[in-house]
Design brief:
By secondary structure, the chain is α/β, with parallel strands linked by helices. It has helices at 2-10, 55-67, 96-111, 129-139, 155-160, 167-179, 197-216, 248-255, 263-276, 304-316; strands at residues 14-19, 80-85, 115-122, 144-151, 183-190, 235-240, 243-244, 282-285, 295-297. It has one domain: TIM Barrel, CATH 3.20.20. The chain is built from ten helices and nine strands. The protein has a seven-stranded parallel sheet, sandwiched between helices. A two-stranded antiparallel ribbon has the order 7-9. The protein is globular, with a radius of gyration of 19 Å. The protein binds iron/sulfur cluster. Iron/sulfur cluster is lined by residues 25, 27-28, 36-37, 40, 44-45, 88-89, 123, 149.
């Protein structure tokens, strides 16, 4: 799990600071689509980010929240954080001025002594050469993770959720990121409308195969990833579909409710997903915890303690 991995890698517990880059999303502003992916809320799937203030202020505010949970025995100047830019598409720039501003923001972040790594959530179709150059430069200062929202490998579901890019675009993005040594974390959503359990497992199986093929073989898969050069997928985030008020999927559910997994069924699915994944893929997340005020279903996801206890029980009974 990610907490042990971070401790081992950085020699201390590392905390996430949710920050805003000020980027929007091409799937919301009309370049690719309007209204975004059907599950995405107004906050761009990152409700906990700091407001778009100067970085110094964002970090101060985010640290205030996070530091309340850090044991007092760790002095403030020994605390380490991940600068986490999750909401919207954090490599989406429309002008040269925006690109320069983004580079300066991320450069400022990686140069700060308390920042151990930079984590950037984005879309695979928003990684042009000049952005890859920027990521390569940042990576020379601190580890850079890029989080790609794949959600599913099934094109019919991708179309239904209006993801706005095809699987080969994802494969190219993984290849490009691995070529510059950036770590790749993939988001998968379990329980998208119309997907069977087997189809969800197929998405995870695909990622496992992509990873193993790249890490251990000289026969590259169709994605032509750099063979034997390391892991293709460094980390994975699995989460249940959160049906939120104000999203197209929320409207769809309210008008014509579709089946939603029970907590037990979800935990059993997670167990089967974990069985498919190679051990060297770091598990960053096993459930989603979106804003409770917007949650329509599944209501069990609002009870974090119950989710964690059930997950532990199901994972330990195999
Ligand atoms: S790409 Fe991300 S931010 Fe954009 S609409 Fe989809 S989930 Fe939301």
């Amino acid at each position: 799990m990610v907490s042990e991995y971070l401790k081992e890698r950085f020699g201390t517990k590392v905390y996430k600071l949710s920050l805003s880059s000020g980027c929007t999303c091409p799937n919301r502003d009309g370049l690719i689509g309007m209204g975004g992916c059907t599950f995405c809320s107004e906050g761009g799937s990152g409700e906990f980010a700091a407001p778009p203030l100067p970085l110094e202020d964002q970090i101060r505010l985010a640290r205030k929240r996070v530091d309340a949970k850090i044991p007092a025995r760790i002095p403030p100047d020994e605390r380490r954080y991940i600068a986490y830019f999750q909401s919207f598409t954090n490599t989406y720039v429309r002008t040269e001025a925006e690109r320069i501003k983004l580079r300066s923001l991320y450069t400022e972040a990686v140069r700060r002594p308390e920042i151990a790594a930079l984590s950037i959530g984005t879309r695979p179709d928003c990684l042009p050469p000049e952005i890859l150059d920027m990521l390569a430069d940042l990576q020379k200062v601190k580890p850079v993770w890029v989080e790609l929202g794949l959600q599913t490998v099934h094109e019919k579901t991708a179309a239904a959720i209006r993801r706005g890019y095809s699987l080969p675009v994802f494969e190219k993005a993984v290849r490009d990121l691995k070529e510059i040594g950036v770590e790749v974390i993939v988001h998968v959503i379990l329980g998208l409308p119309g997907e069977t359990r087997e189809e969800m497992l197929e998405t995870v199986r695909y990622l496992a195969e992509l990873h193993v093929h790249t890490a251990h073989s000289n026969n590259t898969p169709s994605a032509e990833l750099p063979a034997g050069s390391g892991r293709a997928i460094d980390g994975i985030k699995l989460q249940q579909l959160q049906i939120l008020r104000g999203t197209p999927v929320g409207e769809q559910y309210l008008q014509d409710p579709f089946p939603v997994m029970t907590l037990d069924a979800y935990c059993a699915l997670i167990r089967d997903c974990l069985d498919l994944l190679p051990e060297d893929i770091v598990i960053h997340r096993l459930t989603g915890d979106g804003p409770k005020s917007l949650l329509i279903a599944p209501l069990w996801s609002a009870d974090k303690k119950r989710v964690l206890n059930t997950m532990k029980r199901v994972l330990n009974t195999t």
